[in-house]
Amino acid sequence: MDIVNLDHLSANPLLPEVQEAMIHAIRTDFGNPSSQHKLGDRASEALEKARESVARLINSGSPKEVVFTSGGTESVNLAVKGVAWAKAEKGKHILTSNIEHNAVLRSLRRLKMMDYKVSSVPVDSHGRVNPSDVATALKEDTVLVSIMHSNNEIGTIQPIEEIARITREKNVVFHVDAVDSVGVVPVDVQELGVDLLSFASNPFYGPTGVGGLYVRRGTHIWPLLDGGVQENNRRAGTENLIGIVGMGVAAELAARDMKARMAQMKEMKEKYKIHQIIQITLVMRIIIRKDKETDRQIQIQIQIQTGYLIWEI
Ligand SMILES: Cc1ncc(COP(=O)(O)O)c(C=O)c1O
Questions:
Q1: 210 and 284 housed in the same domain
Q2: Coil, helix or strand for 191?
């Protein structure tokens, strides 16, 4: 049976060029980029080539501003906790919006347990943050603002440039969770004026479990992991080279084909009048528990989950 995948943000089929590059890397670039010998050099070259491709996709000023991670969640954790820890002496207040992904919300929940103070700006009926709400909510001790680029459920794109102007003026670090935007719609970190930007490879036909964090030169973050000096001392541990090579090729293709992909998406949206997608999942659980007295007991739980919406009929 053919599967029609309408969940492209979670995982996309790997493009043939991406698959080929990864298979080539498995065969030839299996070295460790940190090794001081020929195999290591070859692996390191492949790593840096991918870094350049990813940096180009987001128009980073330098490939050195790209830190490879294991995906969106790690990038967000590194950004949010990394800044909070690095700036703890300056202040402990963090500002976010109330429609962020759990990667942000739960990182902040963790920080709250560590005495950080978190506040949220609301969104309007289109899910949009009002930049003047951000300006008003900033405090003397605010060290970080974290607002997503596009929302993973309703797709609203936030006024990132305007918010960045406000944070820059107040000397507050600005992190943007752009996991659902990078490689899908144009994201230019210099034009946006952000300090940190999280992304993942799978939304643009790269492999899952690979991502990155853009860290503007001069932005100080503490690493989450302690260990080696990989990724410019920002992310210890041997890189997932094969996955990163795949992401690099996917980034090149996304930059090349973005306009055509966006046009195709628009055409499909208009043709099928797809508005939003309703996802209704029926989860049925049958739990069989042995009861000591009756010897047997069956319990059935039915749970209905609704999430997104389906089309406009
Ligand atoms: C907006 C947003 N942020 C973060 C994440 C987490 O990314 P990952 O699943 O790559 O860890 C997702 C994943 O769906 C997302 O949509």
A1: no
A2: helix
